[in-house]
Design brief:
It is built from one helix and twelve strands. The chain is mainly beta.
Length: 147
Amino acid sequence: MEPELQVYGVDDRPWLPVPGFDGCAVKILQVDPVQYQVVFMAKLAAGTRFPRHIHHCPTVAFTLEGVWRYDDHVIPPRAMAYEPAGLDHEAACEEDCVVLVVMNSVDGRFMSAWLNDKLKVDLHLKFFQRAEALNRALGHVPGIRER
């Protein structure tokens, strides 16, 4: 099968609240189960703290709107954070923000987050595939060709 361009209207995808992460919603833009790549937008409300998490793969986070903090670093609009695999950290938003995230895994594991000291949540390929299916079910997603 020939590879083909896929173009999506971002506004046609609904924001999905992320259970367990108050103040956080995502729009799943692309899940590639062959290349183990996910692309999504994350929207975080002002004052939101994303709990401690560890990346299992390289991650690019590009700030579209707002300002967020990554440990001691401030990431303003139009700034990119490159997060290598193995980083263990927290993030927080000083104001409402929207971030475009691209994650490239070698084994389908993307990150693990701790909702508290005891509850660990693993975000892996199946999580993103289910979220993408929910995105498609809740909103029409026009593209060059529907899959």
